[in-house]
Amino acid sequence: MWHQPIGHALGNGGTTSESAARGYALKITLISALLTLAVRAVAIYSPAAEARRGNQFAPMPVVQTVTPEDARNRSPYAPGRLIVKLKSSVDVCLDCLVSQQIPLAPTLRSTLFDDLNRRYGLRSVRPLRHVDAGTESLTERRRQQTLRQQRLASMAVARTGRPAAPAAFADFTSTYILELSPWFDMEAVAREYARDPNVVYAEPDRKVAALLMPNDAYFSSSGSWGQPFPDLWGIKLIDAPTAWDTTQGDGIVVAVVDTGLDTAHPDIAANVWVNPGEIPGDGIDNDHNGFVDDINGWNFVANTNNVLDDFGHGTHVSGTIAAVGQNGIGVIGIAFHAKIMALKGLDASGNGLISNLADAILYAADNHANVINASWGGVGTSQTLDDAIAAATGAGVVFVAAAGNSNVDVNAPPPWGPFIPASNPHAITVAAFDHTDQKAFFSNFGAKIDVAAPGGGDSGTGFDPFRSVLSLLSTGAVAQMTGSGRLIVGGKYVRQAGTSMAAPHVAGAAALVLAAHPS
Question: Closest by alpha carbon to 13, among 478, 342, 414, 416?
């Protein structure tokens, strides 16, 4: 009877007979599952998504009668809303005077501002910055602004090593939002207000929107290997494009502890982590972390800085997390602005040792990774591995583990379990579902499952249709990963299946959330 060795990669390496999902009660989407893990998925909110769901925040339908609400929806700016900056010589707060219905002419020495306010139906005025709204003295607002600017100047020195330019910090205490009647052309209104000699500038409060729709070839295509569903169905099924309206993973490092990474792949090269403390090729441990020239990570199998993926598994996993987006080719990662730290802990056969894997996890934590993806596992227990995971998560690192591909409970008794590291209490344990949102036939299950994500397992025609998760192909990929070439799509991509493929969807989602809410 076959058992997965410790550290075996969890791409589904062979056909597993389909059976009932015993005890598998989990039926939740990726983002909502993160909510159960106390991760603030509220950051992944989009009015467009709410509109599709019929939520109360959906925009009003367009009707023939023009109303202020229709004008608000159609206009490139907020109807009736004007931003006005006054000269610093105006030494009283505009909102203070308006709220008390005090004419502005004596202060401004001009009647034009009052005349325009009457003509365009001034309703209210407030300072641009909300921090100023509770202070009814321009002198106090300016004092507080000076303190904030001093703190910003100190931060600039700490971050860049040089002082900020004197003009870097603008004065916002004299900038106001005017709410006027919504019936007017605000471009023309702005020109009228700009005529006042007390005004520095006036402009409509323009709308901005992130209208992200990737131009990556496989994002919009379907049936590339004969399947009757989208090529990147997993990204769409978890509604990642909605999250991209808010966050794309900027500033987040995901450590992929796996078989390595093809760092030169054109769809990942720009998102490979570069150690900021190392000078490439000088043979010196510049950052004194104990690893010489660890530019993109480390190979814990050979104890070198060569992280090339000579099996193909780690590159596929990394692509799901952070393949480059908006580059017009191939696939796109869940967090396509995140960086991949390549930590090779599995060898050219897809197997590894706990000692190497634990060391890789500790490296990730020591070198400031935000998320660790572990798409591997085996049956048994290991205090070494548990201690490494505890150290990483204790440092605030999110640890994501694949549930396993044996269609058993993650915490099953020997000889079937427990499955590690998925059974670790600190791990976010990920099961797999197919493109119909049903449990993949191979996926482990049980009470320890925290979330399910796209992992393949689909039925269909052609060679191994259940291998339906498309991602990056490593130049070092072996026949087991490529199906002797029959799983390769478009020359640079390959489809696979397993909870290995599900876990990086969650790691990518975690990167999105952390980018939006670092704390």
Answer: 478
Do both 88 and 226 map to the same domain?
no
Q: Residues with catalytic annotation?
A: 258, 313, 500
Say if residue 236 is in the same domain as residue 286: yes
Residue among 179, 202, 205 nearest 98 (CA):
179
Digit-coded pLDDT (tens) for 71-81:
555 566 778 98
Closest to 508 measured CA to CA, from 296, 253, 307: 253
Same domain, 188 and 275: no
459, 439 Cβ separation under 8 angstroms: no
What is the rounded distance in angstroms from the CA atom of residue 393 to the CA atom of residue 400? 10
Taking phi over 0 as left and psi of -120 to 50 as alpha, with beta for the rest, 439 belongs to beta
Helix ranges (H only) for 269-312 are: none
Write down the H helix ranges in 285-432. Answer: 313-322, 354-366, 383-394
pTM recorded for the entire structure:
0.62
Q: Which residue has the higher pLDDT, 416 or 129?
A: 416
Q: State the residue range of the domain holding 187.
A: 76-206
Q: Contact 427/421 with Cβ under 8 angstroms?
A: yes
Task: Give, in degrees to the nearest 5, the angle at Cα 318 between 380 and 438.
Answer: 65
Q: Is the pLDDT of residue 88 over 70?
A: yes
- Per-residue pLDDT tens for 192-219? 999 999 999 888 887 633 222 334 567 6
| Cβ contacts of 196 within 8 Å, gap of 6 or more | 108, 110, 112, 113, 116
- For residues 202 and 220, membership in a common domain is answered with no
167, 221: one domain = no
Gap between the Cα atoms of 79 and 181, Å rounded: 8
Longest alpha-carbon distance in the chain: 93
